[in-house]
Design brief:
The chain has about 230 residues and is an alpha/beta fold. It has a single domain (about 5-225), classed as Rossmann fold, CATH 3.40.50.1820. It has eight helices and six strands, in the order βαβααβαβααβαβα. It has helices spanning about 25-30, 50, 65-80, 95-105, 120-130, 135-145, 175-185, 210-225; strands spanning about 5, 35, 80-90, 110-115, 160-165, 190-195. Helix 1 (about 25-30) links the parallel strand 1 (about 5) and strand 2 (about 35). Helix 5 packs antiparallel against helix 6. The chain is globular, with a radius of gyration of 16 Å. GO terms for molecular function: serine-type endopeptidase activity. InterPro entries: AB_hydrolase_fold, Peptidase_S9_cat. It comes from hydrothermal vent metagenome. Keywords: Hydrolase. This is Prolyl oligopeptidase family protein.
Length: about 230
């Protein structure tokens, strides 16, 4: 090291990464990137308080949950493992949302972000979950998203390039999120690229071979050629 790095926060957000094979992590590592998968607050498996701290005093999406990811990056830079000038964030679903939030932060740690199946409008998602979910998962999701930062309202502050990726038939985070965000990016004249995965749904285990091929090749090409001044 220090290595170029990709921060890859998990989706959910109320799940956790277990130590084991990660197809996306391995794909990025094969291409020369250190991959950091933070267990930010809200992740399950670290006790009730840690999980609840993501929503108990108002939704922490874009606030404390985002600080956790950035603190991890700073630690890895301090340890000499990560090159401070070559860091990107890539995430899917909640992870994609985190990538959009990262793009508009003012202490900017990243050279670019890749946001897949991202929640761009928190109110849109809250309304959707109120209709679609039941029980405990409805309570945690609605409470977390309710007060969290909404990327659609932060587009004017975006200060790094964005690659936006979305499945055309996403049933969990509808395509409307990408469409609204794209419109806002264009309006504010922000540097971005967009890839739509034709016929792709939300959950990554539903992505077909052709979707993965398009996803991975566009990600690597973006990181190498369009991320920061000289590519990652």
């Amino acid at each position: 090291g220090p290595f170029p790095a990709v921060v890859m926060p998990h989706g959910g957000p109320f799940v956790h990464e277990s130590v084991g094979y990660s197809e996306w992590g391995q794909m990025l590592a094969n291409n020369g990137y250190l991959v950091f998968q933070p267990q930010y607050r809200g992740s399950k498996g670290y006790g009730l308080d840690y999980y609840k701290s993501s929503f108990i005093n108002g939704g922490q999406g874009g606030y404390a949950m985002q600080d956790d990811k950035d603190d991890g990056v700073k630690y890895l830079i301090k340890k000499g493992l990560v090159d401070a000038n070559r860091v990107a964030m890539f995430g899917w679903s909640y992870g994609g949302y985190a990538a959009l939030v990262a793009a508009s932060r003012t202490e900017q740690l990243y050279q670019c972000v890749i946001a897949g199946a991202a929640v761009s409008d928190t109110q849109l998602q809250v309304n959707y979950y109120k209709k679609r979910l039941r029980g405990a998962s409805k309570i945690e999701q609605v409470n977390m998203w309710q007060d969290s930062i909404s990327p659609i309202k932060e587009v004017a502050k975006v200060n790094i390039p964005i690659l936006l990726i979305h499945g055309s038939v996403d049933q969990r985070v509808p395509l409307e999120h990408a469409k609204r965000y794209l419109k806002a990016l264009k309006k504010h004249n922000k540097k971005h690229q967009y890839v739509e995965l034709e016929g792709a749904d939300h959950f990554t285990n539903t992505l077909f071979y052709q979707h993965k091929l398009k996803l991975y090749s566009s990600m690597i090409s973006y990181l190498k050629n369009s991320c920061g001044p000289g590519g990652l």
